[in-house]
Every structure is written in structure tokens, then in C-alpha cells.
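ERR on first pass: missing label on line 2. Operator R.T. fixed the label and resubmitted. Corrected input:
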Amino acid sequence: MNIFSYERASESSTAINLAKSNVAAKYLAGGTNLVDLMRETIEQPEMLIDVTHLPGDIERRSDGSLLIGAAATNTALAADPHVRSAYPLLTRSILAGASAQIRNVATVGGNILQRTRCRYFYDNAARCNKRRPESGCDAREGFNRYHAILGASEACVATHPSDMCVALAALDAVVHLEGPDGSRGIRLLDLHRLPGDRPDIETELQPNELITAVEIPPLPFARRSTYRKVRDRASYAFALVSVAAAVDIDDKGIIRDVRLALGGVAHKPWRALKAEAVLKGQAADLDSFRAAVEEELAGATGLRDNEFKIELAKRTIVAVLNELKGEGA
Ligand SMILES: Cc1cc2nc3c(=O)[nH]c(=O)nc-3n(C[C@H](O)[C@H](O)[C@H](O)COP(=O)(O)OP(=O)(O)OC[C@H]3O[C@@H](n4cnc5c(N)ncnc54)[C@H](O)[C@@H]3O)c2cc1C
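pass 2 clean. output:
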């Protein structure tokens, strides 16, 4: 491991100023991903800026939105009584990830910025365009069971590993940022990038920008929502495919509104906008569900080991929508 210094910030301005002072500085939250990457020498920061003492409150605001401090732990967010009742998909997505011990220290900010679990990214002996631009991609012809079926490129077929982000994508969350040039908000959907020919650039963050909070706009029908994760083991495994969904069905059985997002299928949390468009105004039945998934997955392409995920994604979406339909208002 390389030598690095450690600083703790109690205000966001201190964290940002410290980050500006060293080009190789990194923010450190729970460290459950960053420290692993340092051990493997994939990340080699010279300075770690501990941001776990910045706000981590979960605040219900008068307009019905929810503001979650970036330092909130995954456990605290999943257990929050309002989150559990108003956004079941969010609680379930978090509880589907990692282990209780990891969730106790992992934070909302760190979860959003955790890096891919592609084994070739972690293997210094392998070619990886994300780790070393233009070196090649050993995943394309290698073990690619967990890799992308949507939005991938020649350069990279890695997926984003977060479960929580899939729920946040469905909820249209806004990520609050502070940086050297001031504050701004960005939709979670626009924060992560597709790989294109620069898979090493994973987000739209500017240098030294700090995630300070995540805002969830009001969405009353999210009470009827869920998250389903399909994986190789019942626990402690990343998603092959996951689905976050919320539906608003009127008393005639017509879908008034719907939110759908997929995990384990792309370089970023995948909002299923095409499926949503097909579903809105249609009867909540299997014919509509199947038409929607065909539209969403029409552009999906498989690799040697992950072709099956296309059908798996379709079936999981249909099963989740069917489950929510059965739940009643
Ligand atoms: C064995 C294991 C199994 C796991 N299984 C799952 C799983 O099934 N599903 C899942 O979703 N996740 C899983 N995870 C990943 C886990 O959820 C992440 O490691 C965790 O959420 C990262 O949060 P952290 O606070 O520890 O981040 P860190 O490791 O501290 O940081 C991660 C990244 O975020 C940056 N960062 C942190 N906070 C901020 C901030 N406020 N502003 C800007 N940048 C910031 C850091 O610089 C770093 O680049 C697993 C992890 C392990 C080790």
C-alpha cells in the first residue's frame, strides 16, 4: 500500500479546500469500497479526507420531499420509518445489498460512487480500459456473466454495482453537490455515464466535487413499490438483474403512472423509460407488461456468458409488476 495522509473534515468547505490542496486526494466515507481498491493498488490516493462527520440527517421537508445527508449510513436510511412506509423500494434495495456489517458503515455518498465489480477491473494483470485507458478489455472475451446487456461499448461492458442507486433512479432522486465553483444539483440519472470510448470517466462530477445530500421528490404512489434482486446466491452477491418499480393503478385497473429501473444490466442505473411509456394508460395486465419489456429490451445485446440476462430481465420486470398489481392500493 502507498503512503497517504489522513484528514478529517467537519464542514463541507473544509473538505473541498483540502481536496483542492492535493491532486491525488480522495474523499473517504465508510471506506468499504475505497480501502479495498487501495489494497489492490487500483486507487492510490495521497490524501484521504474523511467526510463521515458531515451531515447524515434524514429530513422530511414541508413540500413532501426527503433530504438525505450524504453521510447517512445505508443502515440508517433503510431503517428510517418514513422511508420504510413511503418508499419500500428504497429500503428493500438497500437491504438486498452487501451485509449488515457493511451497511452499518457504508454511506449514501459512497454507495453512489462505488466502482464496478468487474473482476478484470480489480485484476492488475488484466487489460481494462476503465483502469488503464486504451489498454483493452479482457471482459469482452472473458468471464462476463455479470456484465452489461444495455448501453455497453466496445471499450467496456462493466456494470454499476449499486442496488440503492436503482431505487434512486426510479424515484428520480437529485444529488446535491458542492465544489470549488459552488453548489448544484444533478439528477441521479444524469450523474453516472455510459462507457462510450472513455469508461475511465464514470460520472459527470467535476474535480473535487463533494456529494452533500440526496433529495427524493414527493411520489405518493411509491407506497406501492418494491425491489427485486436476482443473484447467484441468496445473500452477499451482486445483482445479475434487479428491478425497482412503483405503480399507480386506478380503480378500473388502468396504469396511471409507473416508475421502473434496472440494475446489473448497464454501466449506470438503467431507467426503463421505454417500458414506462408503453405502460402508461394501459390495463395493468400481462399483455401490457410483456409489450413493455419487449420494447425496453429490444436493444439489449448479450455476450458469451450473459445472453440469458435479456430474458431474465424481461421475466423479472413482468413478475414485479404482477406482484405490485396484486398488492392493491
Ligand atoms: C463484500 C461486499 C459486498 C457488497 N455487496 C454489495 C451489494 O450487494 N450491493 C451493493 O449495492 N453494494 C454492495 N457492496 C458495496 C457497498 O455498498 C459499497 O462499498 C458502499 O456502499 C460504499 O460506501 P462507503 O461509504 O464505504 O464508500 P467509500 O468506500 O468510502 O467510498 C466510495 C467512493 O465514493 C467516494 N465518496 C464517498 N463519499 C463521498 C462524498 N460524500 N462525495 C464525493 N465522493 C464520495 C470515495 O472517494 C470513493 O471513491 C458490497 C461491498 C462489499 C465489500
